[in-house]
Amino acid sequence: MRFLTRLMLGLAVLTFAVSCSRTPPRGGAPATYQAAPGPGATPQLGDRRPHAWTGGAPYGHAVHGIDVSRWQGDIDWSRVRGSGISFAFIKATEGGDHADPNFRRYWYEAAQARIPRGAYHFYYFCRTGAENAYWYMRNVPREAGSLPPVLDLEWTNSRNCPRRPPAAEVLREAEVFMQLVGRHYGQRPIIYTTVDFYRENQLGRMNAEFWLRSTANHPSVTYPGQRWTFWQYTGTGIVPGIQGDTDINAFAGSAADWARWLQARLVR
């Protein structure tokens, strides 16, 4: 009888595991649907608003990570790491005078949980590239083993800075930031951007490694011809250890590619 009980429990666990490993059906899925990407990926992650993908889904990627800011509140970084998250980008600064109040805490706690982490800067167009760069460098430690800096380029909705300069100025000032910050940390920054900003400012002309936001289609559809390293594929992700919606990102390559990328791109 005990053997039969153990057998039934084992079958129940197996059935649950199989049900959690399916890719999202084309007709949509419940809010609690746990999207299991496939071999080597992260079955504990989910999406509150999953949908059918065109051009390729993110779930088959082996390496996934998060980006966070003060709005995530208290984070259980050990649970985050245990869920299969391989990296974290943490908001550090904006413009030339604002720092995220949770940055230092997240920076320390992520390191304690042994999650590779980097810091990103939200660019304000009412400041020069140099002003943005120096503010970032003032607030983000130059720490061996951290991920490369990230420059977040998108239009702001701030009443304090509604300015939208022409593309030539955007590219020029962004390059100033890239050079100053790159020299300071020994790694050229990654550029994070959105579809509209990328197109309107011809960011593909920049010498940069890209982190692209694309929450409805594969980046090959929304950014045709553009190579990328990171893909932000949802803003409504479910991550154990974090309350509420979380941005989830996929790395472009395999687990072996990720190890090689880290070896080449960590700050030293």
UniProtKB/TrEMBL annotation:
Pfam families: Glyco_hydro_25. Keywords: Glycosidase, Hydrolase, Signal. GO terms for biological process: carbohydrate catabolic process; cell wall macromolecule catabolic process; peptidoglycan catabolic process. GO terms for molecular function: lysozyme activity. Residues 1-22 form the signal peptide. InterPro entries: GH, Glyco_hydro_25, Glyco_hydro_fam25_subgr. Residues 23-50 are annotated as: Disordered. The keyword Protein biosynthesis does not apply. PANTHER family: LYSOZYME. Belongs to the glycosyl hydrolase 25 family. This is Glycoside hydrolase. It comes from Paracoccus gahaiensis.
